Structures are given as C-alpha cells and as structure tokens.
Amino acid sequence: MQDRKKFTKKCLALLMAAMTIFTVSCGSSAPGENAAEDAGSAEDGENLFGKAERKSDTDISGSFAEAHDAFTTTLVREENDDNPIPEPPEGVFDLVSYPSKVGDLAAYVSSDPGDGEKHPLIIWVVGGWGNGIDDFPWIYPEWDDDQTGSAFWQAGILTMYPSFRGGSGNPGYYEALFGEVDDIVSAYEYAASLPYVDPERIYLGGHSTGGTRALLASEYTDKFRAVFCFGAVDEIKYHNNDQFTFDTDNKDEYTMRSPIYWLEDIESPTFLIEGRDGNSECLERMEKASQNDNIHCYVVERADHFSVLAPATRVAAQKILEDTDGECAISITQEELDTAMKQGMTEMPVPVMTERYLEELGMTFSCPYLWDIVENEEGGLTALSRYDYDNPWDMSVIFITPYSAEEADDLQEMSRKMQEIGLTVNEARVGGHDAINALGRFEDNNGINRFQRYVIIENEGGYIDFECIALEEYAEESDSLFVDIISSIRFDD
After folding, report:
1. Residue 479 and which of 157, 170, 255, 472 are 20 to 30 A apart at CA?
2. Is the pLDDT at 20 greater than 60, yes or no?
3. What is the mean pLDDT of residues 39-64?
4. Residue 446 class from Cβ within 10 Å (0-12 exposed, 13-18 middle, 19+ buried)?
5. Would you say 88 and 283 are in contact if contact means Cβ atoms under 8 Å apart?
6. Would you state the pLDDT for residue 43?
7. Cα–Cα distance between 259 and 177 in angstroms, integer?
8. Which residues contact 263 (CB under 8 A, 6 or more apart)?
9. Which 3 state secondary structure label does DSSP give 244?
10. What does the alpha-carbon distance between residue 155 and residue 172 come to, in Å, rounded to a whole number?
11. How many C-beta atoms surround the C-beta of residue 18 within 10 A?
C-alpha cells in the first residue's frame, strides 16, 4: 500500500502540472459575513498556473498527517476578525468553546436531548472563507442554495458548527485551509467528549471551501465515521487567490492545501458530491486520480454548485439515521441522488421556533427565532424577520393589535362584515378562547397580490387581532407557518 501511495502521488505531481486551468467560485446569496462569502474567479490564469506547476519541495511520499504536522505555514498576512457571535436558540443549540492548538474556539453544538442516550453528530463546515460563526444555521434554507446544513438537525441529528482560528474573536489568524484542518480535528475531540454524543458515530460534512476543508480533514484522520464533501476542489489554486494569506511563492504551501495529492490516505468512507454545472471537473479529476475504495464520487446532472445541496444533504441525513451497525454501512447510489434532485422540495422547511411572552396581553406564542417583535404606529406589535430575502419566512409578517370591547364589534358582527368583503370566515378556538378565523387575498397599494389570514381572539372583554400577511406566491408555505404560530398561542388564565 505504501509503495502504491508513493507511485500515485508522484504521478499526480506530474499530472497536475499538465492540466488546463479551471476556475471555480464559492459563495452564497445568504446573509452573514462569516457564513459564505463570494470567491471570485482567478484574475490571471497563466500566473496562477505558473505558481502551481513548479515542482513542490514537500515530501509527499508519506502520509498527509505526517507531512502536515511537519510543515510550518508562513503567513504573509495576519488576518482575523472580532465579529460578534449571536446567541443561539435556547434548548436547540448551545454556544460553547472547544480547545485547539491555538486556544479555545467558539462553536454552536446541539443541546443535550436529556434522554440519557448517546446520539450521532455531524460537524458541518459552511462554505466561504470566513472563520467565524453567526446566525447562518437558522436562516431560511433556500431549496436551490441551502448551505445551512440544517437538513441534519431538522432530521434529528445532533449538529456542530465550529468556528476556526482567527474568526469571531478566536485566537490565531486565517490560514486558508491549513491550520483549519487541525481545528476540525479538535472539534471532533470536543464532540466526542460530550456525554450525549456517540463517539463512534461522529460524521463530517462541508460545502465548497468547507467541503475542501472536510476533505483535507478526511485525509488527515480516520476518526470520522463518514465524510460528506460537497463541491470540494482538487487543488487550492482553483479557489479565490485573493483569500490566500500564505506565502504564494512557496509551492509547498499549495501542496499542503490541495486534496488531490493525499487521496490515498483516506480511510473513512468519504463521499464527494457536486452538480454538473459546479466544480464537477475538480471532482472528476480526483475520481480519475484515486484508486482508493473509500472514496465515492457523484456528479448530479441538472444541478450546480448550490442547487445540489438541499436534496443531497437530506439524502445524507437519512443515511446517517440508518447507520446504526457496529461499522459504518453507509452507501449512496447515483440513482438516489438523481431522484432526490428531480423530486424537489416535498415539504416546507421547519424554522427554529422560540416562545415570546407579551406581558401586557398575558399571552405566549411561538414564532421563528430570527423574527423580531417591534411596536408599530397603530399601537400594536409587528412580528417579522430581521432579513428581507425572497422566501416564505422573510416575506411574511404578523400584526398583533389589541382592542377593547368598546372599540370593536362582537365576533359575530365582525364575522358578518368580513364575509361581506369576500373573506372566508370560520369559528375557532385559540388558546381556550373563542375566536374567528378568516382567509382572503388582496392587492396592496403597489399592485402586489397578498395572502391574508385574520385570527381575532376574544380575551378579557376585548379582542386580540392577529393579521398574517404574505406574498401570494408563498401563500401555502406561509399559511402553514401561520397555523403553527396561531396554534401555539396560550394565555395566562
């Protein structure tokens, strides 16, 4: 085996020097500076190729772990950030610190389920070059660009989102795929120490830059039960060189960050997945270069670097749930991925909900964690997302308005008037109180069609009006969310 590794790596060094340039991008349309930053194309392909084609002085005949541990990276730019870390939703995730070679680093990790059992966990490394964490795990998981990794915790799998050296006030500096590999291993050690985590069922996944980081970590250690790499590149030179903080005149620096030289070191089942219109050339080069049976490669047709994520992460999540034997038994077929891609979204993603208590109304209800509740000019409250992206969560709003009995008709009269203007009205019970529930559509002052749900609740001689409004195109998804919110209402009495 060792002789085959030496032969394969020497051939790769020659092969990569002869390859044509293929430029990829890595980024996201999602909010959050640390979550996923756009990585542009190489500005000078000839110069970039010139740097990578020179023979590396690094000894690649041994293992990646040996070479990585013996190598000292040289940073020409010492960059970091002190971006604040938002508090996670209580009872869903905890904000923790995990020890690493450079000091304690921040991470979100699923809260203890409290059932006394040990559970599987996946460490998810988001795309982009930021080394910090923010509220990225709880934004709306767009079906055609879901980099959140939320498919795993929504399926009931414990999830850890680590930050890395130099990010979010952490010690150290950005090392652009070198020291971050050590941090992933440190994240594993922390996760394995948690009393509610099964140390034999810790998985690793990542997308784009995060996928490359995950692939390098799989080459470094066999600790992970399985590794899922989405959109990884074979050589770091295909990433955005503006983000390189290391000495780009030293070819050893490139070799130590390029997975294709170390594929034979992978001992954990490792799944490389990409859309045809994404970094598929990188994946196919790695598939061609490797003779390692632990590596499984899949190119999904009619998908790109981003659209492959939502269906494929849900396939991976299901595989993890079914992987309960003593040894990893995960297998994925091309047909399963293709079918998931064709099937599309079968149900609305479930947001992290949190309880809100309105003391002046003596009322508690749940709404998405990323929604804010603010006072409005009409004397009531408005519940809405802190983002304005084009999706059901962010394009929905609820107006909460209390009325005294003197300010409004009784429920029967209000029901009659609503029906007169074309609303569909039904009697209801909300939180143990009499209510009416009305549905309708209207065109706003800007000519935009809106879906509308009125829920008016009788309460202590007065009324509380919940007016739920969403874009007509999101009526079905938003109404499902509204129903969950209304069903959660309860009163102090």
Report:
1. 157
2. no
3. 48
4. exposed
5. no
6. 33
7. 10
8. 8, 219, 286, 289, 290, 292, 295
9. coil
10. 34
11. 7
As a whole number of angstroms, the distance between CA 468 and CA 372 comes to 15
This prediction's pTM: 0.87
Whether 242 contacts 40, CB under 8 Å: yes
User: If you compute the radius of gyration of the chain from its CA atoms, what whole number of angstroms results?
Assistant: 26
| CA separation for the pair 267, 270 (Å, rounded) | 8
Which two three-digit tokens encode residue 312? 């494929």
Q: Which of 175, 158, 38 is nearest to 107 (CA)?
A: 158
Residue 282 is given by DSSP the state H
CA pair distance 332, 316, nearest whole angstrom? 8
Of 234, 217, 219, the C-alpha closest to 183 is 217
Q: Are 302 and 341 in contact (CB under 8 A)?
A: yes
Give residue 240's pLDDT band: very low, low, confident or very high (50, 70, 90). confident
Q: Which helix (H) or strand (E) holds 235?
A: none
Kindly list the distances between the CA atom of residue 55 and the CA atoms of 215, 290, 347, in Å, as whole numbers in the listed order: 23, 20, 51
Q: How far apart are CA 357 and CA 489, in angstroms?
A: 10
Q: Is the dihedral of CA 65, 70, 76, 81 positive or negative?
A: positive
Highest mean pLDDT pick, 135-149, 174-188, 452-466: 174-188
**Mean pLDDT across 356-375:** 94
* Predicted pLDDT of residue 409: 80
- Predicted pLDDT of residue 378: 79
What are the strands of the beta sheet with 93-100, ordered from one edge? 93-100, 103-110, 158-162, 119-125, 197-207, 227-230, 270-275, 295-300
pLDDT band at 91 (very low <50, low <70, confident <90, very high): very high
Pick from 166, 155, 80, 148: nearest CA to 108 = 148
